C-alpha cells in the first residue's frame, strides 16, 4: 500500500553521509529541473520492497511542469520513479556490480500527464501504473528500452479512455545520471491508442514516436499523455497512415524482431521414442529449458533485429558468446527465466522435422501477418518466446544467415527452440490465407462434444472460444489453418 506525502526537502550537509547515494544522485537531477519545487508530493511504499512489501518502487515524485510556450509544450504533471536503479548500494535490492556498468536495472521510469484546468494536485493513478510495470521488471528481470511497446489492453487510468497501451522513449528533459553504483537512464511512458500501438508493431516504435511528437494533441514535442484524447493521430491527420506508416512498412519493414507470447509447438513427424527424447519437449506439460547458448542466440538475434541493416543474421549455432559483458543477474527482453540448461548444449542435437504443429493465442496469432509482411519479406527473422516456459519459435527467411533451418530442411529444432524457414512464395500464400485475422472482428472456433482440447492454457469443453486461439500445421512445405 502506498501513501502520498511531501518530501523532506534538501539534505543538510551533515546528513549527506546518511542519505542513500543513489537516491541523492537522482534527486540532484530532479532539483536541476525543478529548483523551485524542493518538496514535491511523493507516493511512497509504506512497506519497502526490501522489507517484504509488494511495491518495488520506494518513491514516485510528482512535479508540476509549466511546459514551454516557445516549443508549444503544454502544462503537465511529471512523475519520476525511484527504485528500478540501485538507490542504496548494499545489495538489499540490487546486486552491486560497480560504477562502470548500469545501476540496478539501469533505468527509472517517468510519465508526463496533461494537467487539466483547475487541477491543483497531480492524480496518483500513474504511480500505481509505474508500480505495475516495475513489478513486471522485477519478477521477469526483463528490462525496457526506448522504442519498446507495452500492450496493456485497458485504459491506463481505469476510465473509458482510448489510451490503453504504452510506448517507451527517452525523457526529453532528464539526462542520464552517473551514480556511485552505475549509470541511470530515464525512460518515459507514453500513452497511446490501440491503432497507434498496432502501427508501432507493424512499423517501428521510434517512427511512431516521431509522428506523435508532430501532433500537438497526441503528445507534442515532449510526448505528454492526454487521457481525454478521443482521436488517434490517424483520425487527426488521415494522410499519416498511407504516407508515413504504410510507406515505412513497405520500404523498411518492421523492427519488431520478437515478442513474448502464449505459444507452443509439437513435432508431428513421429512420436517420441522415450521420455528423454528431445522431440517430446513441447508435448509434455513441462517444457525443457533453453540452454545458455541458445538463450544467448535468441537474445542476440532479437537485438540485431532492432537495428536497420541490410544483412539479417542469426548467430551461428556453435557461437561461443556467453554474454559476459552484462551482469548475470539481469536479463534482456525475452530471455529465459533461467540460464542454467537442464540438457547440456553440446548434447542437444539439431533435428530436422517433417511436420510441426503451432499454437498461438489470438493476440500472438494476429501478429503473424506482421511477422510475414514486415519481417520475412524484408529478409529478416521473427521470434515468439513463450511466457509459460522456454519454448521459442523463430520464423526465418532465406536471406537470414546462421539459421539452422535451411531450404532443404525448412523445419528444424535445437532443444525447445524451433526454426521455420519460409520462402517468399510461401510467405505470400500464407498472407493471403491469414487475411481473415485482420479483417474479421470475431473468429469463432467450434469444438465438438465431447472433445476436450487445451489451447495455450485454455481448456474448452464443447464451447466456443472468444477470442479464438490460432492454430497452424506445417507439413512438408505445406501448411493449413486450423480454425
Automatic annotation (TrEMBL):
<dbReference type="Pfam" id="PF12470">
    <property type="entry name" value="SUFU_C"/>
</dbReference>
<protein>
    <recommendedName>
        <fullName>Suppressor of fused homolog</fullName>
    </recommendedName>
</protein>
<dbReference type="InterPro" id="IPR016591">
    <property type="entry name" value="Suppressor_of_fused_euk"/>
</dbReference>
<feature type="domain" description="Suppressor of fused-like">
    <location>
        <begin position="53"/>
        <end position="229"/>
    </location>
</feature>
<dbReference type="InterPro" id="IPR037181">
    <property type="entry name" value="SUFU_N"/>
</dbReference>
<dbReference type="GO" id="GO:0005829">
    <property type="term" value="C:cytosol"/>
</dbReference>
<feature type="compositionally biased region" description="Polar residues">
    <location>
        <begin position="310"/>
        <end position="321"/>
    </location>
</feature>
<feature type="compositionally biased region" description="Basic and acidic residues">
    <location>
        <begin position="322"/>
        <end position="334"/>
    </location>
</feature>
<dbReference type="GO" id="GO:0005634">
    <property type="term" value="C:nucleus"/>
</dbReference>
<comment type="similarity">
    <text>Belongs to the SUFU family.</text>
</comment>
<dbReference type="GO" id="GO:0000122">
    <property type="term" value="P:negative regulation of transcription by RNA polymerase II"/>
</dbReference>
<dbReference type="InterPro" id="IPR038489">
    <property type="entry name" value="SUFU_C_sf"/>
</dbReference>
<dbReference type="InterPro" id="IPR007768">
    <property type="entry name" value="Suppressor_of_fused"/>
</dbReference>
<feature type="region of interest" description="Disordered">
    <location>
        <begin position="268"/>
        <end position="295"/>
    </location>
</feature>
<dbReference type="InterPro" id="IPR024314">
    <property type="entry name" value="SUFU_C"/>
</dbReference>
<feature type="region of interest" description="Disordered">
    <location>
        <begin position="309"/>
        <end position="341"/>
    </location>
</feature>
<dbReference type="GO" id="GO:0007165">
    <property type="term" value="P:signal transduction"/>
</dbReference>
<dbReference type="InterPro" id="IPR020941">
    <property type="entry name" value="SUFU-like_domain"/>
</dbReference>
<dbReference type="GO" id="GO:0045879">
    <property type="term" value="P:negative regulation of smoothened signaling pathway"/>
</dbReference>
<dbReference type="GO" id="GO:0005929">
    <property type="term" value="C:cilium"/>
</dbReference>
<keyword id="KW-0539">Nucleus</keyword>
<dbReference type="Pfam" id="PF05076">
    <property type="entry name" value="SUFU"/>
</dbReference>
<keyword id="KW-0963">Cytoplasm</keyword>
<feature type="domain" description="Suppressor of fused C-terminal">
    <location>
        <begin position="243"/>
        <end position="445"/>
    </location>
</feature>
Amino acid at each position: 500500500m502506498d501513501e502520498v506525502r511531501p518530501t523532506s526537502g534538501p539534505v543538510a550537509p551533515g546528513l549527506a553521509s546518511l542519505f542513500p547515494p543513489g537516491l541523492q544522485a537522482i534527486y540532484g537531477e530532479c532539483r536541476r529541473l525543478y529548483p523551485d519545487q524542493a518538496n514535491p508530493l511523493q507516493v511512497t511504499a509504506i512497506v519497502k520492497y526490501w522489507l517484504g512489501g509488494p511495491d518495488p518502487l520506494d518513491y514516485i515524485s510528482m512535479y508540476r511542469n509549466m511546459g514551454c510556450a516557445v516549443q508549444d509544450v503544454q502544462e503537465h504533471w511529471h512523475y519520476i520513479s525511484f527504485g528500478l536503479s540501485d538507490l542504496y548500494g548494499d545489495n538489499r535490492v540490487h546486486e552491486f556490480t560497480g560504477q562502470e556498468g548500469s545501476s540496478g536495472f539501469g533505468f527509472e521510469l517517468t510519465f508526463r500527464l496533461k494537467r487539466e484546468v483547475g487541477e491543483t494536485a497531480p492524480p496518483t493513478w500513474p504511480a500505481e501504473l509505474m508500480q505495475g510495470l516495475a513489478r513486471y521488471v522485477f519478477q521477469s528481470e526483463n528490462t525496457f528500452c526506448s522504442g519498446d511497446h507495452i500492450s496493456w489492453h485497458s485504459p491506463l487510468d481505469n476510465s473509458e479512455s482510448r489510451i490503453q497501451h504504452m510506448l517507451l522513449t527517452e525523457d526529453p528533459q532528464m539526462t542520464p545520471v552517473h551514480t556511485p553504483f552505475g549509470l541511470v537512464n530515464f525512460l518515459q511512458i507514453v500513452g497511446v491508442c490501440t491503432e497507434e500501438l498496432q502501427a508501432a508493431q507493424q512499423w517501428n516504435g521510434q517512427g511512431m514516436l516521431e509522428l506523435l511528437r508532430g501532433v500537438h494533441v497526441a503528445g507534442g514535442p515532449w510526448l505528454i499523455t492526454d487521457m481525454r484524447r478521443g482521436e488517434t493521430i490517424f483520425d487527426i491527420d488521415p494522410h499519416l497512415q498511407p504516407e508515413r506508416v504504410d510507406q515505412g512498412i513497405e520500404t523498411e519493414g518492421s523492427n519488431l524482431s520478437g515478442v513474448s507470447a502464449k505459444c507452443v509447438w509439437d513435432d508431428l513427424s513421429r512420436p517420441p521414442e522415450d521420455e528423454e527424447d528431445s522431440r517430446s519437449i513441447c508435448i509434455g506439460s513441462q517444457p525443457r529449458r533453453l540452454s545458455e547458448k541458445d538463450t544467448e542466440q535468441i537474445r542476440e538475434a532479437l537485438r540485431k533485429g532492432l537495428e536497420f541493416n541490410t544483412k539479417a543474421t542469426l548467430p551461428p549455432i556453435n557461437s561461443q558468446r556467453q554474454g559476459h559483458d552484462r551482469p548475470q543477474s539481469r536479463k534482456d527482453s525475452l530471455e529465459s527465466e533461467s540460464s542454467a540448461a537442464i540438457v547440456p548444449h553440446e548434447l542437444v542435437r539439431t533435428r530436422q522435422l517433417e511436420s510441426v504443429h503451432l499454437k498461438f493465442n489470438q493476440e500472438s496469432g494476429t501478429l503473424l501477418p506482421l511477422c510475414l509482411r514486415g519481417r520475412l519479406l524484408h529478409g529478416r527473422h521473427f521470434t515468439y518466446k513463450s511466457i509459460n516456459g522456454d519454448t521459442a519459435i523463430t520464423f526465418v527467411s532465406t536471406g537470414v544467415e546462421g539459421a539452422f533451418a535451411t531450404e532443404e530442411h525448412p523445419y528444424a529444432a535445437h532443444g525447445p527452440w524451433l526454426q521455420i524457414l519460409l520462402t517468399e512464395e510461401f510467405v505470400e500464400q500464407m498472407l493471403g490465407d491469414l487475411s481473415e485475422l485482420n479483417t474479421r472482428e470475431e473468429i469463432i472456433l467450434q469444438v465438438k462434444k465431447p472433445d476436450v482440447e487445451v489451447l495455450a492454457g485454455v481448456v474448452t469443453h464443447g464451447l466456443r472460444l472468444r477470442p479464438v486461439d490460432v492454430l497452424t500445421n506445417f507439413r512438408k512445405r505445406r501448411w493449413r489453418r486450423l480454425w
